[in-house]
Design goal:
With 393 residues, the chain is of the alpha/beta class. Among the domains are: 150-210, Helicase, Ruva Protein, domain 3 (Orthogonal Bundle); 326-392, Ubiquitin-like (UB roll) (Roll), CATH 3.10.20.30. 38% of the residues lie in helices and 19% in strands. The chain contains twelve helices and 14 strands. It has helices spanning 13-21, 92-97, 128-160, 164-171, 179-189, 201-215, 230-240, 251-262, 282-299, 304-315, 349-356, 358-362; strands spanning 2-6, 38-47, 63-65, 68-77, 104-110, 218-223, 245-248, 266-267, 276-277, 318-323, 341-344, 364-369, 374-376, 386-392. Strands 1, 2, 3, 4, 5, 6 and 7 form a seven-stranded mixed β-sheet that branches. A five-stranded mixed β-sheet has the order 11-10-14-12-13. Strand 6, helix 7 and strand 7 form a beta-alpha-beta unit. It is flat.
Length: 393
Amino acid sequence: MLVGLVGKPNVGKSTFFKACTLANVAIENRPFVTIAPNHGVGYVKIECIDKELGVQCMPRTGYCINGKRFAPVELMDVAGLVKGASEGRGLGNQFLDELRQADVFIHIVDVSGETDAEGKKTSGYNPIQDVEMLEKELDLWYLGILKKVWKSFARTIQNTKENFAQAVARQFSGLKVNEEHVKSILLKLKYDAEKPADWDDEQLENFAHELRHLTKPMIIAANKCDRPDAEENIEKLKKEYSELMIIPCSADSELALREASKAGLIEYVPGEKEFKLISSNEKQKQALELIKKNVFEVYGNTGVQQVLNKAVFELLEYIAVFPAGVHKLADSKGNILPDCFLLPKNSTALDFAFAVHTDLGNNFIKAIDVKTKKPVGKEYRLKHRDGIEIITR
């Protein structure tokens, strides 16, 4: 799974990325600090199943704190996108092309109103314009990809009578398009799939828009929520874009807390509403108190972990599944509940077996729910936080 961080320059994308990954990336208060994309590992937060099974887990990947399991996901932070990016402005085509494989977008928006459309310092800027800009540029990006091949592609479908949904899914698989996406769009728009060559420009634009929304769902991280005008701007965004998930966040605060925790100054579990002071000087203590006052007391948390979790578990509707054994919860090295897999909704026990290892899928006999000790078949629909043992021949 790949989570793409997008937005105009100088809104805090790299800070958000570093807060999630603690990777060493350049962060400065000016546009276009990031040119090459940053790749790193962030973590979604899940209630671990170890306590239900009466054990203490020992993750091989990710980590667990006080029953909160953190499972890895790949994050990519690309350079800032500006108006005209879909036409190549600011190397926009290059940056957009890097986002093809993303499963979901987190749009980092500066809700303080302190950066203009180019990412330069200002005051009183309306962040609604940033959402409008990015939505349009992403739609134009998809439209441009479709238009490059559409005429010949559509004529071929009509002449060969090939299934339209299958053909589109195959042609645009690089954008994570599948047949179900195409079928649902056709149903919604009521377009004639037998004569796509007859579609006019407006129909193709609408199709590109719907395809982009389905294949690259997006959540808004309303960043810099602790700045003076942020609360008012967040309400404006929620009113204007009621169909989008908009989560207030302070990437600066989350980064400060994670670095303080790493340094042993505080005890802090990402996404929680409080932290415990262990040791700090007066300057550090004052900075931490400001985070408590301006972020925790207003919003309940920094929002960074919440954005990542909602992107994966609510927008993408993924579930977390733990490979385990009814009588043996450890791997060959003694690690208890070492892994946690993230799978699409409606995944089956057989899907899970293949996700763990191809041999398990090929030799599948049955699965066992380790919580209930009951056997389940290959068509069993997995639930979030299932613990599953795969039995093979």
